[in-house]
């Protein structure tokens, strides 16, 4: 049985955006911020010193797609690509080394390496924690948060990533940007059960498999909304440009028919990011990071300089 078939059931346009984004940038930033706030102590106390940085840089990985070779395939896995049938005999969570023996490297990178990228970023974060490498901790935590969030977007797990194979072009942006913008304010996104993840590779594949199981509903309910409202397009400004978006009535119908899917996947992203950051710290031996981030107690003159906006720049090495 193919790994992707093990999860058959989902638990439960913005036209101008097309396939360019993962979650919209505001959602990625929110996920890293909320994941920091959800951490258990003492890690929460240390990383909260950098919550603004972790949030602001949650989208760096997407920005690198245009400048860094092989960055784009790190953000998706086309789980239904016939060419990936070479993974079928490798179990539900194939290791990259075994996948390389079963498929060509070009095939893997053509159809995406997202589950393995989560493992690679995770191990880099463990090393950074172990080395008390402040810049490495921040860089790898921010990137890991991004890739984990991408793994929870159903359309990041299929060849039909923007509905282009079924005449539903633009559905990618509707699901991950338009719906969160319209309805995200009412979501319950607090997570409290952050915990240790023992097998990161298995967790990554299971998360992506679940996201993939949501794809049929993502597509079928788009047809339902279109049957009811037609194209439902409206001109709206975003990022200083006018473009076509689905109107609110169309989106409300689609959102209702998805039955909480966007909210569930958003919350699962936060829980996953926070749990993996925490697990990486545990795997690094639970190092004391007091001197790495803010000192526990600061002298009065350092607090005075920071209030003037100088302290943090003076004391911290720049993050590459
Ligand atoms: Zn991405």
- Helical amount: 40-55%
H/E series: HHHHHHHHHHHEEHHHH
Q: How would you classify the helix and strand content by structural class?
A: mainly alpha
CATH architecture: Orthogonal Bundle
In short:
With 320 residues, the chain is mainly alpha-helical. The protein is 52% helix and 4% strand. The chain has a single domain (3-289), classed as P1 Nuclease.
Would you mind describing this structure in some detail?
The protein has 320 residues and is mainly alpha-helical. It starts with 24 loop residues before the first helix and ends in a 5-residue tail after the last helix. It has one domain: P1 Nuclease (Orthogonal Bundle). The chain contains 15 helices and 2 strands. A two-stranded antiparallel ribbon has the order 1-2. The radius of gyration is 20 Å and the shape is globular. Helix 9 packs across helix 12. 52% of the residues lie in helices and 4% in strands. Zinc ion (ZN) binds next to helix 4 and helix 8.
Keywords, please?
P1 Nuclease, binds zinc ion, 320 residues, 15 helices
Annotate the secondary structure layout.
Blueprint: H1 25-37, H2 43-48, H3 51-56, H4 60-64, H5 96-102, H6 105-111, H7 114-130, H8 134-151, H9 171-183, H10 200-213, H11 215-229, E1 233-238, E2 241-246, H12 248-257, H13 261-283, H14 300-307, H15 311-315
Antiparallel strand pairs: 1-2
Helix pairs in contact: 1-8, 1-13, 7-8, 7-10, 7-13, 8-13, 9-12, 11-12
The chain binds zinc ion (ZN).
The site of zinc ion has 6 residues, from helix 4 and helix 8.
């Amino acid at each position: 049985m193919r790994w992707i078939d093990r999860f058959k059931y989902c638990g439960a346009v913005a036209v101008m955006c097309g396939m360019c984004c993962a979650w919209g940038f505001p959602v990625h930033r929110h996920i890293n911020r909320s994941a920091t706030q959800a951490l258990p102590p003492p890690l929460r106390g240390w990383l909260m010193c950098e919550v603004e940085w972790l949030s602001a840089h949650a989208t760096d990985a997407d920005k690198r797609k245009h400048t860094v070779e092989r960055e784009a395939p790190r953000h998706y896995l086309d789980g239904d690509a016939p060419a990936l049938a070479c993974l079928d005999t490798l179990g539900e969570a194939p290791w990259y080394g075994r996948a390389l023996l079963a498929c060509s490297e070009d095939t893997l990178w053509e159809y995406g390496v997202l589950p393995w990228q989560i493992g690679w970023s995770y191990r880099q974060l463990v090393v950074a924690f172990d080395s008390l490498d402040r810049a490495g901790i921040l860089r790898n935590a921010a990137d890991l948060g991004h890739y984990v969030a991408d793994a929870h977007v159903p359309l990041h797990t299929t060849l039909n990533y923007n509905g282009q194979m079924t005449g539903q072009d633009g559905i990618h942006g509707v699901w991950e940007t338009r719906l969160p913008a319209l309805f995200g304010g009412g979501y319950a996104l607090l997570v409290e059960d952050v915990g240790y993840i023992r097998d990161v590779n298995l967790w990554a594949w299971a998360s992506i498999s679940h996201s993939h199981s949501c794809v049929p509903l993502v597509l079928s309910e788009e047809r339902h909304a279109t049957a009811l409202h037609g194209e439902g397009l409206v001109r709206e400004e975003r990022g200083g440009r006018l473009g076509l978006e689905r109107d609110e009535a169309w989106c409300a119908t689609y959102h209702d028919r998805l039955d909480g899917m966007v909210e569930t996947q958003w919350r699962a992203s936060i829980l996953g990011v926070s749990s993996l950051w925490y697990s990486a710290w545990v795997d690094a031996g639970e190092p004391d990071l007091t001197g790495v981030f803010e000192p526990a107690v600061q002298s009065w003159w350092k607090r005075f300089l920071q209030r003037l906006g100088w302290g943090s720049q003076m004391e911290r090495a720049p993050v590459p």
